[in-house]
Amino acid sequence: MAGYTTGVLLLVIVFGLVYFGLAHRVLDRLYLSDRAALVLIIAMIAGSFINIPITSGRVVTSVNAGGGLIPLGLAIYVLYRAGSSREAGRALLGAVLTAAVLFGISLVTRGREAWNVTGLSLLDPLYYYPLIAGVVAYLIGRSRRAAFVAAILGVLLLDIVDLFYYLRRGIRGTVAFGGAGIIDVTFMAAVVAVLLAEFIGEARERLQGGPEAAGRPRSLLAGLRGASLKPLPGNKKGIKGEQNE
Amino acid sequence: MNKWYRPDKLWRALVILALALTLTVISFYQGRQQATTRVFGLADLIASTHTEGQYAVLVDEEGQVLDMMARRVYINDEFIAADNRRYRVIRVEGNRAICRQIGIEQLSLEAEESIAANDTAVPVQAGGSQVIGVYHSHDDEAYLPTEGTESIPGHGGILQVGSAFANRLRSLGLNVIHDQTSHAPHDDSAYRRSRRTAAGLLQKGAAAIFDLHRDGVPDPSFYRSTVNGQDMTMIRLVVGRENQNMGANLDLAKRLKGAADARYPKLIRGIFIGAGSYNQDLSPRAMLLEVGTYTNTLAEAKRGVTLFADVVPPVLGVAARPAAARTASTAADWKGVFWVILALILGGGAFLVISAGGWDKAIARLKQFTSIEWVNLLGWQRLRKPLVVRIKGPGSKEPEAAVDQEKRSVNEAVPNDQRAGWQKD
Fold first, then answer.
1. What residues in chain A have per-residue pLDDT under 70?
2. Do B53 and B218 form a contact (C-beta atoms < 8 A)?
3. What CA–CA distance (Å, rounded) separates B117 from B311?
4. Where are the beta strands (DSSP E) in B275-325?
5. pLDDT tens for residues B194-226?
6. pLDDT, tens digit, for every residue of B232-284?
7. Pick from B15, B409, B191: which is nearest to A105 by CA?
8. Across the interface, which of A105, A184, A228 has its CB nearest the CB of B417?
9. What is the DSSP string of A64-79?
10. Nearest Cβ partner of A119 from B12, B26, B154?
11. Could you tell me the residue ranges of all domains in chain A?
12. Rounded-to-integer distance, Cα B204 and Cα B224, Å
């Protein structure tokens, strides 16, 4: 860092601010207050510098506090706070499917660069991981929180798959859960997945003219038009599509 | 009663299934179609596990071969050839990419500067504060003639090439961390794994990070060069297009090439600017090197990379005069800043308009955003005051407390309720 000059430093800082800003927006969606979200972001940045070794030797394993432990804790918290066991189940199913799809891609790309494989080559793995996590989680869980859980647990599951690969093949390897800290694919995937779910969700609601209310349990609908949504003066209650404004 | 049999569930499952099937069919079909032209697809994957030997040929519009590389090339990929001509891929036919010249890079000025800096520093003794990180995303990459195979997971010859590079940099007075962490297997997750290594190097203060690879073009002579009467491999610099640091890293690549051309002509194969990010989003001083190809010998590769190490300190400004020769900010750095901000504004704006349902509503929401969204982050002091008054009691200051209560806007009173609209599932 010492060798960086103004332009480079500014590039790093601006990108950091944008990323942390987005990350903060994302944490905001997870049953957290603004302040808690900010505290967590700071904790993750600080935790990025803390690697907790688990095993050493041929297969080295470690977990990063900022990129592994805190995101995992958050995912568990979101699952714990989920409105129904079905919601939690869907999020977990999303995680398993995300891991399965990403592992499938790893198998297809084994021995080659991802950009040498038809269809995967348009984007760097760094970017399609979260896209896949976001899409799969949204299809399964239909929620931003499910997308978050699926992305975090999905990528962590991939690391466990790696661990088994090293153990089975008897080759040396390193599994650093969330090793790059807050910029690790684990958390980055979650950030993009939630934003993507948000984008799909909003676009879909817009297209269909408001959240789908028919056939939903009353408790869920209450949340939709409860205290959180003070009716605007010109808002007629009960009309679909106006609730969300 | 079983909810899994509800029709919308069924539809969702069908959509996922259809998507998966379509993807499989497309990749299988393309694989079969391209098998004849030796480009990569699912079909050849089943037969072999490595792409070594499969490569793209870059030709100009007259069909003359400009370059070869073992990677898929896309329209709008660019490369700067050894003679500094810059080309852009305008058409791809099978494994042939047709390129058009779009200019000639002027690298000579920078080269002179670098040489000047280098000449004053023999032997170069840096302050020791600058750290250079070296790592290998594909640690399996090996050199066939020396090692008998092109892939040894966890122990490829590329690690020794990295050691040669690191040792030379150390002898030039730099602090080098050569991280030999294995990121096997060689698949699309290799960069996810190596990202952790790269981030670790940056955390340890690396001013620049180098990810060393070797190419997969079968012809050894394509990457072979003779410098000072010795055979050695040429080096290709690779810059990823898909990240905000592309401009800054391309600039670094050009400076490295300029300096190398001045000191060891024919050492640099060229600069390729292609799809991918290669963890270069982590640092504006991150470079991917292809040290020769798998059919070169390990010794050739070591010699090539050792010569390349000579031009690194002056270019990175970590040589004898660290302050004077510091890597200057370039237009590319500023452009990177501009792009990041532009992307944020465009992306955020598009999302806002879609989610709000129109311009007017988007603007209203933006106002709401600035007034409400941050309220319980910034509002703790605003909140505290009336509460204190209230605690003081219903006795003496009751009227004042009541006024305060009224003054409090609805937003401040129940920030989370107001914000709940943002906190949807």
1. 1-5, 8, 111-122, 210-245
2. yes
3. 10
4. 286-293
5. 999 999 999 998 989 999 999 988 889 999 998
6. 999 999 999 888 888 889 999 999 999 999 999 889 999 999 888 899 999 98
7. B191
8. A228
9. EIIIIIHHHHHHHHHH
10. B26
11. 12-209
12. 35
